[in-house]
Structures are given as C-alpha cells and as structure tokens.
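Exercise 7. Predict the joint structure of the components listed below.
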Amino acid sequence: MLLIKCPYCGERDQSEFTNGGEAHVTRPKNPEQVTDREWAEYVFIRSNPKGIYYERWVHTHGCKKWFNAVRNTSTDEILLTYKIGETPPPIKKFQNTLKSPSGEPDVGSGNFTVKKL
Amino acid sequence: MWRSPEPRKFYDIIIVGGGGHGLGTAYYLAKEHGLKNIAVIEKGWLGSGNTGRNTTIIRSNYLWDESAHLYDHSLKLWENLSTELNYNVMFSQRGVLNLAHNEHDIKEIKRRVSANQLNGIDSHWADPKEIKKLVPIMNINNCRYPVLGASFQPRGGVARHDAVAWGYAMRADELGVDVIQNCEVKKIRTKNGKVHGVETTKGIIRAKRVGVVASGHTSVLAETAGVRLPLQSKPLQALVSEPIKPVINTVVMSNAVHAYVSQSDKGELVIGAGTDGYNSFTQRGGYNIIEDTIRSIVELYPIFGKMKMLRQWGGIVDICPDASPIISKCEVEGLYFNCGWGTGGFKATPGSANLFAHTIAKDKAHSINAPFSLERFVSGRLVDEHGAAAVAH
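Solution:
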C-alpha cells in the first residue's frame, strides 16, 4: 500500500485514491484533420515505462480533486505530487537508476526490483 | 534436459522470452515449419516469469467468435500436449465454473454460454443445485452476494505450469533450438525500418527476425525499437495455501466478488487475486488487493477461514485496452509481438505459441490470430473480452 501526498490534504492512505493513468495526454486540437492512426495513438496508446512515470490520481474519498504525480514504477516510490495546471518537472530532474529494461542484475531474475537500486 | 549453449553471432529467428509462449513458439517454428537456426533468449531461468507462477487455469469460454476460436484452438492443443511433447504436463480437465452473483452476471453469463455453444464450446448454464453438487463446500446463499448460477465448462481445468515450459524447452532443444538463459535482451536494434538484432548482456546477436514474448516487459522492449504498444503493465497477485486433503475438484472463478480457487495435486489451494489499480513493475502488488480476495474466498468457503497461506506473489502482466491479446507484425520489418495476454495468458500457451510461430514463419498472421493484430486499434475493430477475462482490468 502506498502513502500518497495529496497536494490539498497532505499524506493519506492509498485506499482513498483512484489512479487515472498517464498524465499530460493532450487531446488533438484539430480533430477533423486527425487520421485514424493518430486517433489510435490518442485513444489507446499510453506510455508504459519502467522507471519515471507521470500519472494522475484523484482523491476519491477525500477532497475529490485530481492531481498529478511522478512515480518510479520500478519501486512504486512517489517522487513528487503537484496540482493540475502546474508545469510538469523535467524528467532529467529525477534519477532513473535502471540499467536495463528489466532493471535486474546481469545474471538471474526475480524480485530484485522491490529493493531500491 | 536441454543444452546451455553460448549464443552464436547470428540467428535467423530470435525469440525474446523463455516462458511457455516463447519456448512453444520456438518448438513450433522448428517442428511445424521446419526452420533451423533459432534461439530463445531468457533473462532469468526458463519459466521464471509468469509461466512459473500463475493459477494455471485453462478454459475457452470467451464471448466473441474471434476469441472463442483462439482459446479453443489452444484448448485443443492442450488436450494432446502431453503426447505431443512426450512429457506429462498434467493437464487435468476438472471443469471450470464461472459464478453469477447478480442479475447482470446472469444475463452476461447466459449470453456467453449461448455464444460458446454456437461456437461448439462445451459450456452450459449450471443452476445453484448443480453448483452445490459440484462444490459441496461452497456457501451459496448465506452470504452478501449469493451464488445464483454459473457457467460450467467441463473441458476446462488446470495443468502443471513448469512442465509446460520444460516440455517445450526439451523438445525445442532436440530440434536444434538454442535455449539461452541468464541473458537479458537490453535493446532491439533496427536499421532502415528493419530489425537487425538484439543487444544482450552476452553481447550483440544479429537476427533476421525477432519475436518478442516478454509479458509485462514487452512494451519496455518495444520502446527500444521505437514501437509504441497499447499495453499497460500491472502486478497481478496470487496465493497458495498449506496443503490439505482434497476438498474441491473443479476450478471456481467469480468476477463479481473477485476470487478464484482450485486445489493443486499437492493439496494446496491456489487462489487468484486481482491487479493493482496503477501501473507498476514491482512484482509484489498491494495488500488491499489480496485482502479483498481473501474476504470473498472466506465468505464463499467458510471452511477455509482458519487456513494458513504458504506464499503470495505478484507477477507483471501486460494489459490491452480490450482485454484481448496481440499476436502481430508491426511497422518494423521482421519484428513480431505476442503480448497483451493480461491476466489470462497461461491457458493460451500452446495456441498462442502455435499461431505466433505461424505468423513469424510466414510473415503473415494465421486466420485465427488475424483479428488480434495491432491494426485493430487503428480500425477500431476491438475484441472486447472484459466480461470473459475473469480478472477485472
């Protein structure tokens, strides 16, 4: 379970929140000129990085406000939360420690990602 | 068993991912298509991902024709797999129940049963009396969500998950496939819109064709080739109890209260939980998810109330927007994906491998997997199986 810092209410238990998927996805500005392929990109395709991820949460059982978060999906560590409308911090600001797609040692497999690299 | 060869500099076909789907693909490429010079590259040991840790449920009672054909193709291969591989995969057709707990469930399941029957799938509507006879330990009416009926597929069941990986690995190895373990693919290399090879922890290996079957990490690898897939990765959890004497001889699944259970041949209860509500690669999952599942399990089967759980785990599954898989070519020539199996890939292992091998060998989808191309997200012709995929997505 995560402890999430709502920018309005402070730290609360994850059970009060609902995840809203990737943040900063913008709807095409000129829908009538957009091709099917571009629509598919907007409707169905979302980033799915292992590492630094910008996402939305809503404080469902609290202030009911939406906000954004930066989380490391390989450790579930929430690095930052910020209000909707605020400029997202550049990805370079965060250190992505994964050296390979799996983030695991050169030999072996398993639950290494839960350990902080 | 199988050899542990050092990788060659070049292969005609590289399969990334040494789970059941990947090893099976290599086996069928060699066996049915007579191809040589194939490698399977696995970052851990064989079956160390979701193949080696899942709830092993096999069924084909999906709603749409496309899915029914796909999963029943797989089920038919399961029925002959031990003979085909000359290795006992312990496929046990003990039947699968999918419970209905409310009016909507009844309508959805009855509709699905009818669709199944039109597709020649042995599914039927079971009333509470039949359910109670099949599973005497189930509490069907003294609970918050009483059991109002179920679909029952007698041909469904469970199999020994590790044996599937080992069986395919052995026979693929005999046919000359190089099974390379402890070697992680870090990057897919492309050149002028064509696949060129892979970068691994054991160096660069060139290849004419690359098939990626890396489950939760497929989209991460695709990204290295500049391909964006409609996948989201989430942890899916399951639990195994201490072994007890036989109490349940079928598989029972419930979408509405989200709990499913079967009993392994060792006597352990194998319990499936749901996915976390957010993307993650942590391979653990939240405790609130297993708490929900355990609550439902105990209400449905009060006699499990005092049991102890032996272990719990979380695997990373890749989920498509329509809860159906992708077995497809992509815009990069020679690069193929078999992914998006989400929370129910194990049942599809032989069928998926068989069709993926066909797709790679012929550079063209088989008629069964043609509807499961990446193109469907552009055309909008989705295969929505959120109802039949037992785990809520």
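Discussion. Chain B has a mean pLDDT of 95.
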